[in-house]
Amino acid sequence: MSTTALIWILVAVVAVLAIVLVAGIVLARRRRISLAEKEKAERKPKGGGYQTGGGISLAPGGTPAPPAHPAGERTEVDGQPGVGDDASVPRDSKRRGIVDVTLPDEQAPAATRTEPVTEPVPAQQEPATAPVPAQRPPAAEPVTAPVTAPVVVPEPVVEAEEIEPTSGRLERLRGRLARSRSTFGQGLLGLLGGGDLDEESWTDVEDTLLLADLGAATTAEIVEKLRGEIVTRGVRNPEQARALLREVLVEALHPAMPRAVRALPHGDPANGGKPAVVLVVGVNGTGKTTTTGKLARVLVADGRTVLLGAADTFRAAAAEQLATWGSRVGAEVVRGNEGADPAAVAFDAVKRGVVAGVDTVLVDTAGRLHTKTGLMDELGKVKRVVEKQAEVDEVLLVLDATTGQNGLTQARVFSEVVDVTGIVLTKLDGTAKGGIVFQVQRELGVPVKLVGLGEGPDDLAPFEPGAFVDALLG
Ligand SMILES: Nc1nc2c(ncn2[C@@H]2O[C@H](COP(=O)(O)OP(=O)(O)OP(=O)(O)O)[C@@H](O)[C@H]2O)c(=O)[nH]1
C-alpha cells in the first residue's frame, strides 16, 4: 500500500472519530435538556397543599383569600379570641372596627356629632357637689349628642325578684367546682395521703398541679413547701395531709389581698356625692355582660341603687341582654345605638348616674378589638372620658377560666392597657382547671375578687381563698 493510500485511510478514520465525538456531545446535551424538562414537567404547582418536613404550609399565590381566622367561628363556648387576634365576628350583628369611629369636630353642631366627648366641657368642671341637671349650663348639654344619644331605659321593677344573699355563696355553690375538685380532692389528696412519698409520687403531685393550670412557678413553690412541711411536721395520715395541703394552697392564694369590690359611692349621691364607677372589661364571650348583670343584683340585694351602661356596642344583643338584667333588678340602663362609640356611651351612663344620684354605675365595655393598640385606644378613651364625670373606682377584668393559658395572655394584655384592679373568673363551674386562680393572681398581682359558677343570675360568688380551697378539697 502506498504512502498516499495510508494517509487517506488515516484521514478517513480521524474524520469518522470526529463525527462520532460531535454526535456524542450533541446526544449528551440533548439528554441533559430532556432530563431538566422532565423535572420541570413533574414539578407541582407552587405550594399546592404541599407541606414541607418542617411543617410549613404553603398556599398557592393568587388563590382566594385564606379561610377566615378561627376567631370568626369562636363563640362563648369554644376557644375564646385572644387580645390581638382578629376580631371575632359578633354573634348576631355586623362587625364594626374601632377604626370606624369618627371623631367629632370640636366645633361641630351637636346634632352631627358621633362622639359626645373629646375634651373637658364646662359641665365636667363643675364642683363635684353641684346638683347636676339643674345647674348645668345649656351649653354643656351637647356633650351627650343625639347621634350617640343615650337611650335611657328606666326599668321599674315590675316583679321584685328574690335575690340570693351574697354571703356564703361560695359555700352554697361549692358543688359547681366538682370538676376541679376531682383533681385536687381525689387526685392530690390521694397522692399525699397514701403513705410514703417517693420521687415518682412527687412528680405525680407536680403533674396534677400543672394539669389543674396552676402554672410552673406556683406548682414548684407549692411542691417545695409540701415536701418540706411533710418532713418537718411528720405528716403520716390523710387528715394531716389534708390540713397541710389546705394551708399551703390557701397561702398560695394570698388571703391578705384586698378583695372588696369598690362599688360604693363617694359620699351621699342624693347630696351631691358621686357614684362609684366600675368598668367591666375583657374579651368578648368571657361573660362580661352576665357578670355585670349578676353584680348589679349583688348590689341591689345590698340595698344599693345601680345604673348600667351598655358600652358594648359591637353586639346589638349585648345591650338587650344588659337591659334585661337591668329590668330584673330595677336598674336604669343607658345604651347607645349599635356601633356607637363605647366611650360615648360610657360617658353618658356615668353622667346619667351622677344626675340620677345612683350609688353605682356599672359599665359593660366591649372587648372585641383587632389589636392591642386598638384595645389601648378604646379602653384608655373609655376611662379618660368617664373620669371627666366621676372617678373610676374599679376595673374588673373578666376572664373565662376554661380558656386556660389564653385567658392568661388576655389578662396580661389588659393589665398593660388599663389599671386592672380586680379579676372575675367566670365559668369555673365548667372546668377542671380551677388552678388558674392561683396563676392569674400570681401573674398579675391583682386579686381575684369574684368567681362565676354558673349561668344563673345569682351564680356569682365573692372569692374567698379558704372557702375556695375547701371546695376544691371536697
Ligand atoms: N357556665 C357558666 N357560664 C357563664 C358564666 N358566666 C357567663 N356565662 C355564659 O357565657 C356566655 C357569654 O356571656 P356574656 O355575658 O354574653 O359574655 P360577654 O363577654 O358579655 O360577651 P360579648 O357581649 O360577646 O362581648 C353566656 O352564655 C353566659 O351565660 C359562668 O360563670 N358559668
Automatic annotation (TrEMBL):
PROSITE patterns associated with the record: SRP54
Enzyme kind, highest EC tier: hydrolase
EC number(s) from the headed UniProt entry: 3.6.5.4
Predominant place of localization: membrane
Gene Ontology molecular function: any one: GTP binding
Residues passing through the membrane, by range: 6-28
Segment forming the signal sequence: none
Gly residues bias (residue ranges): 47-56
Residue ranges occupied by any SRP54-type proteins GTP-binding domain in the UniProt entry: 447-460
Compositional bias annotation for Basic and acidic residues: 88-98
One Gene Ontology cellular component: cytoplasm
Location of the region described as Disordered in the Swiss-Prot/TrEMBL record: 38-141
Membership in a protein family: Belongs to the GTP-binding SRP family. FtsY subfamily.
Record's subunit section: Part of the signal recognition particle protein translocation system, which is composed of SRP and FtsY.
Protein name per its UniProtKB record: Signal recognition particle receptor FtsY
Naturally occurring in which organism (per UniProt): Solihabitans fulvus
Lineage, broadest ranks: Bacteria, Bacillati, Actinomycetota, Actinomycetes, Pseudonocardiales
